[in-house]
Design brief:
With about 160 residues, the protein is an alpha+beta fold. It has one domain (about 1-160). It is built from one helix and three strands. It has one helix spanning about 1-65; strands at about 105-115, 130-140, 145-160. Strands 1-2-3 form a three-stranded antiparallel sheet. β2 (about 130-140) and β3 form a beta hairpin. The N and C termini lie far apart (about 115 Å). The relative contact order is 0.14.
């Protein structure tokens, strides 16, 4: 009889150990699944961030490409929308994922006809002036990513007289 009782007790202990083992495995599985989901969210957020940065940077490059063209935004004045003369068919930013309307590009003149940055002993001191511009490009994906890129531009003007 004694041997029969010990076997019944061992069955109970084996059941408890098996249930504890299953509990530990379940907890580890739940943690692994939540970490995996968090990793997917993080990678999606980074992808949105990179896409937003590339779109904002494309706005800067497209504005720079307009220099010395018929639509030159670097004409000595502020240009709130350098792409106003373009339609959807020929807009420089039409190939973006979100379309050209998703990028807001503004060009501001910060200093007009001032001395250019060069050495005081240079041979062109007093012959050239420079216009200093700031290009601001902003891209936003609602509830996902927002990027603003600023770039300073210097345009040399021949025939200045600033000593």
């Amino acid at each position: 009889m004694k041997s029969c009782d010990s076997r019944l007790r061992q069955r109970g202990v084996a059941l408890v150990v098996a249930l504890l083992f299953l509990l530990v495995v379940t907890v580890i599985s739940v943690i692994a699944a939540s970490n995996s989901a968090l990793g997917l969210k993080m990678s999606a957020n980074m992808a949105d961030s990179y896409d937003s940065f590339q779109s904002a940077e494309a706005g800067i490059v497209a504005a720079l490409a307009l220099a010395e063209t018929a639509n030159d935004p670097f004409d000595g004045d502020d240009t709130p929308d350098p792409f106003a003369a373009f339609n959807n068919a020929n807009h420089p930013l039409r190939a973006l994922n979100d379309g050209s309307a998703s990028v807001d590009v503004d060009i501001f003149i910060t200093n007009a006809a001032t001395a250019c940055p060069r050495s005081a002993t240079g041979s062109s001191v007093g012959l050239f002036d420079c216009d200093f511009y700031r290009i601001a490009s902003e891209h936003e994906v609602a509830k996902k990513a927002r990027t603003r890129v600023d770039l300073g531009v210097v345009k040399t003007i021949i025939g200045g007289g600033t000593p």
